[in-house]
Amino acid sequence: MAGIKRALISVSDKTGVVEMAKGLEALGAEILSTGGTAKALRDAGVKVTDVAAYTGSPEILDGRVKTLHPKIHGGLLGRRSLPAHIEQMNQHGIGPIDVVVVNLYPFEATIAKPDCRFEDAIENIDIGGPSMLRSAAKNHEDVLVIVDPADYSRVLEAVNGNTVTPALRRELAMKVFQHTSRYDGLIAGYLEKHARAREIKFPKVLSLQFELAESLRYGENPHQQGAFYRELDSKEPSVSRGKILHGKAMSYNNFLDANSALELVKEYEETAVAIIKHNNPCGVALGETPVEAYVKARETDPVSAFGGVIAFNRPVDMAAAKEITSTFVEVVIAPGFVEEALAELKRKKDLRLLDVGPLTKVKQEGFDLKKLVGGLIVQDRDLGVLPDLRTLAVPTIRKPTDEEYAACAFAWKVCKHVKSNAIIYAKPGQTVGIGAGQMSRVDSVKLAAMKAQLPVKDCVMASDAFFPFRDGLDAAAEVGITAIIQPGGSIRDAEVVKAADEHGMAMILTGMRHFRH
Questions:
Q1: Which residue from 108, 175, 225, 429 has the fewest beta carbons nearer than 10 Å?
Q2: Are residue 119 and residue 17 in the same domain, yes or no?
Q3: CA-CA distance, 490 to 469, in Å (whole number)?
């Protein structure tokens, strides 16, 4: 590219900015800057011209107006290939600005502070920065614009090597508009909360920003293309923020199953393991150790567990690793791996190992999104938690035993993560049979019994929604179920309770449904 005569640098995030300025200075560029950036550069030995001195106009209105000036925006927007533009720039004493290095006031960090006042948020809405970025990005054929400090070194390298390509210019311009789009979305969302109500749930315009983390070999099926995007501001421990330690690249279906598995084991304070197949659990269990929980989970349905996706809510130790490698497994997700266990698991060349870090308790929030053709349906995530089951209604003559209460509490959490209609047979700390995704509830009851590899007699049953008829209770009684946990709310609740009484069953009503479509 032609020589760089002038660069404008004004940043809030000063990471790497001194090195960038010195690199541009070494190329013969005059450095224009403002405020804190100018001071930081001068302190580092960079010769700086204040924008106010360059434009002949002082900063005014407490710094709200610094760079909104024709000598700045004319220098950014003037097209070097148009003689009429060059003539007008010369006529008005406007010099070209060849490089812009700008990032914006920390609006997002400001509003994240618990004590942030509305006035503080407003003062952290950047005006000059986005204006310069947009001007430079629009004229990217003539102006190099850098908004991301991660790009400093490669831009300097390209300039030094005279290898600045049109593709690089377009990429940098694209990043500017992605950045300013997200910035404006954050501001709009914040202001809408204050304009409509401080705690609005669903904005009139839903702005979503995700960054491409990786392209996938294909989507759900080989004829579909796929990609994985990461939410920019998510802090919750999750598969999306996990680190792949070993194995083949994650597939579209691997990500879905891994997310389902991890979210299930996050329900439990006790050591827990979930095995997922086709986005449904085929075994879930608690244990004193990771290996005990894993073996118990696998016992639920060892045939389906073959080639499954396994999540632990404790670090994987050597005993668990040896048990995992005794069969074929697709993915193991955990909040860490003991060093010797990691070495043992890596003996399986293709086994994907995903470390999600400590499962620290953070605020769980965000939306559950499902794409429709031409639209999107949005809801809260299902984070519903029951109180102590002993505080819930028991409409049956017989009350649950302590063991039945424990089994119901365990099964109810599993039920929340099974495709509806969902039926879980369980004993304390272990699933016994899982009936998932049937079109009628009684068929899910029968399927759970059919799938059970362990004795069903004296187990409890959890149902994600109410029983519309007594037939589900009758089918459960035939295989030896002794207690039921379900939401209730059917117009035939009295009939269902009567069936339970006839069979000597206890029943807990949660008043909470867990459909999962």
A1: 225
A2: yes
A3: 8
Q: Contact, 149 vs 14, CB < 8 A?
A: no
- Residues with catalytic roles: 138, 278
Residues 265, 138, single domain; the answer is no
CA distance 429 to 408: 10
Last residue of a domain, one of 196, 229, 257: 196
Q: Which helix (H) or strand (E) holds 407?
A: helix 402-415
Instruction: Report residue 246 as tokens.
Output: 């070993």
CA distances from 84 to 3, 79, 87, 89, 99 (A): 21, 9, 5, 9, 22
CA atoms in the 13 A half-sphere facing the CB of 165: 4
SS3 for 292? helix
Query: Does residue 225 sit within a domain?
Result: no
> Does 384 reside within a domain?
no
For the stretch 218-231, pLDDT in tens is 999 999 999 999 98
Give the list of residues 6+ apart from residue 1 with CB closer than 8 angstroms, or none: 144, 159, 162, 164
DSSP 410-430: HHHHHHTTSPSS-EEEEETTE
Asked whether residue 489 falls in the same domain as residue 395, the answer is yes
Domain range for 421 is 391-509
188-197, 199-208, 241-250 — most confident range: 241-250
Helices in 197-311 by DSSP H: which ranges? Answer: 252-265, 290-300, 302-305
d(CA 33, CA 35): 7
- The residue assigned the tokens 């609005």 is 200
Contact 379, 368 (CB under 8 A): yes
Count of domains for the chain: 3
d(CA 316, CA 304): 22
Q: Which two tokens stand for residue 446?
A: 């029968």
Looking at the fold, whether 33 and 152 belong to one and the same domain comes out as yes
* Structure confidence by residue, pLDDT tens digits, 295-339: 999 999 999 999 999 999 999 999 999 999 999 999 999 999 999
219/228 Cα distance (integer angstroms): 10
Q: Looking at residues 377-401, what average pLDDT do you find?
A: 94
Would 450 be classed as within a structural domain?
Answer: yes
* Cβ neighbours of residue 472 closer than 8 Å, sequence gap 6 or more: 423, 441, 442, 445, 463, 496
Listed residue (7, 34, 36) closest to 20, CA to CA = 7
Same domain, 105 and 192: yes
Write the CATH number for 412. 3.40.140.20
**339 and 472 in one domain?**
no
Helix 152-160, helix 17-26: angle, nearest 10: 10
Single residue among 305, 329, 355 that ends a domain in this structure: 355
Q: How far apart are CA 376 and CA 270, in angstroms?
A: 36
Residue 485 resides in a domain: yes
Do 168 and 247 share a domain, yes or no?
Answer: no
Same domain assignment for residues 318 and 256: yes
